């Protein structure tokens, strides 16, 4: 359960002000059809984080516990720093008419926007750290939905009231703590 709760809360915080959250806002304003947008976000996130979690689980089979601990610790600390750099939405990610309808456009746009994103990389690292693929993928997917679904329904009103800088600082702090735990906690040998 720890893997699920940590994954959910960490990704929900990390997603605040992220480019995919901005993408959700743009899609909601443009198409004004919340259900296909939310469903597209869910399916894209599930697919993307499912793959990311599989990579995280696979990495643990290649690396020993000591090497993995240093990589995870450094990665979590790097994520803490990355959280302090605000995202910007690229204009070409939302340009053009919806060829594949609102759902298809959202699915493709979100899947591509999430490639190499903070939350995808966090999913890889969490799956490697917790050795709990399903719990991590379920948690990171729920975290994405908690951060993005309200934006689709409530739009700009939320983004104006949420202090994004404070949320990024809290997220950075959590990643920093996880990095410290990964580096300095005793390594469990299987």
TrEMBL record:
The keyword Acyltransferase does not apply. GO terms for molecular function: metal ion transmembrane transporter activity. The keyword Membrane applies. The chain crosses the membrane at residues 37-61, 67-85, 133-154, 166-188. It holds the Pfam family GDT1. It is a multi-pass membrane protein. GO terms for cellular component: membrane. It is found in: Membrane. Keywords: Membrane, Transmembrane, Transmembrane helix. Belongs to the GDT1 family. This is GDT1 family protein. It comes from Acidovorax soli.
């Amino acid at each position: 359960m720890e893997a699920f709760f940590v994954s959910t809360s960490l990704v929900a915080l990390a997603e605040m002000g992220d480019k995919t959250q901005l993408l959700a806002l743009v899609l909601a304003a443009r198409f004004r059809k919340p259900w296909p947008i939310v469903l597209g976000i869910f399916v894209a996130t599930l697919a993307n984080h499912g793959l990311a979690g599989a990579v995280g689980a696979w990495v643990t089979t290649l690396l020993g516990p000591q090497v993995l601990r240093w990589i995870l610790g450094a990665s979590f600390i790097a994520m803490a720093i990355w959280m302090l750099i605000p995202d910007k939405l690229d204009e070409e990610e939302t340009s053009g008419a919806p060829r594949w309808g609102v759902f298809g456009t959202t699915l493709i746009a979100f899947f591509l926007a999430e490639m190499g994103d903070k939350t995808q990389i966090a999913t890889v690292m969490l799956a490697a750290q917790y050795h709990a693929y399903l719990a991590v993928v379920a948690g990171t997917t729920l975290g994405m939905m908690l951060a993005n679904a309200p934006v689709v329904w409530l739009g700009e009103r939320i983004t104006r009231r949420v202090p994004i800088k404070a949320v990024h600082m809290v997220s950075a702090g959590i990643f920093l703590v996880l990095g410290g735990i990964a580096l300095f906690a005793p390594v469990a040998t299987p």
